[in-house]
Design goal:
The structure holds two protein chains of two kinds.
Chain A lengths: L3 E4 L2 E4 L5 E7 L7 E6 L6 E5 L3 E2 L7 E6 L2 E6 L9 E6 L7 E2 L3 E5 L1
Parallel strand pairs in A: 2-11
Antiparallel strand pairs in A: 1-3, 3-8, 4-5, 4-9, 5-6, 7-8, 9-10, 9-11
Chain B lengths: L2 E5 L3 E2 L5 E8 L7 E7 L6 E7 L4 E3 L7 E6 L4 E6 L8 E8 L12 E2 L3 E5 L2
Parallel strand pairs in B: 2-11
Antiparallel strand pairs in B: 1-3, 3-8, 4-5, 4-9, 5-6, 7-8, 9-10, 9-11
Chain lengths: 108, 122
């Protein structure tokens, strides 16, 4: 299986901050990396697919990038509704889809 | 608007079989792939597997021996069965749409059900 490792596991930030979350794949996955946002008690929501493409309806303050096996999710200016847990997911190996362990973004 | 709704028993006894159904509206189960994903309380997401309307399936290797998925095109729904459950199978179970798996770029989950908590306990 392809292992996905997110860092940090948790993060405290303030409204208006710029935040970056990283996801590292255990092997090359090209750009087949997706990001989800999950709020407490809710299902995950697709934010970004193919490393950097914004899902329809997602605010432009969210962006994604890739460099080798490292992927980043950036929120340019945190809004109150952005405090949630974020997960990466690789879609390179379609026979064994895997998620990162999650990054919890909390209010400072 | 695509909507998915999970249903099934909230409590299952150890060693028994967990059975869940996902009812689909706003789309046809005969399009795309359909997945199950679970999340133990306070933990991360685990992909269980996916099914195509033809009955073609692929399961997480760690669960493969216990998982069976099926699809009912007449009812526009699909189902999950997980056998020989233990407390470790206690989780919120989500059903989700997966646009495709032939191309890696579309093996993502763009619509999700609200999730249903299944507790394994005697």
């Amino acid at each position: 299986d392809i292992q996905m490792t997110q860092s940090p596991s948790s993060l405290s930030a303030s409204v208006g901050d710029r935040v970056t979350i990283t996801c590292r794949a255990s092997q090359s996955i090209s750009n087949y990396l997706n990001w989800y946002q999950q709020k407490p008690g809710k299902a995950p929501k697709l934010l970004i697919y193919a490393a950097s493409s914004l899902q329809s309806g997602v605010p432009s303050r969210f962006s994604g990038s890739a460099s080798g096996t490292d992927f980043t999710l950036t929120i340019s200016s945190l809004q109150p509704e952005d405090f949630a847990t974020y997960y990466c997911q690789q879609s390179y190996s379609t026979l064994s889809i895997t998620f990162g362990q999650g990054t919890r973004l909390e209010i400072k | 608007q695509v909507q998915l709704q999970e249903s099934g028993p909230a409590l299952v006894k150890p060693s028994e079989t967990l059975s869940l159904t996902c009812a689909l509206s706003g789309d046809s189960v005969s399009r795309y792939y359909w997945s199950w994903i679970r999340q133990p309380p306070g933990k991360g997401l685990e992909w269980i597997g996916y099914i195509y309307y033809t009955g073609s399936t692929n399961y997480n290797p760690s669960l493969k021996s216990r998982v069976t998925m099926s699809v009912d095109t007449s009812k526009n729904q699909f189902s999950l069965r997980l056998s020989s459950v233990t407390a470790a199978d206690t989780a919120v179970y989500y059903c989700a749409r997966c646009p495709g798996v032939v191309s890696p770029g579309v093996a993502l989950f763009d619509y999700w059900g609200q999730g249903t908590l299944v507790t394994v306990s005697s």
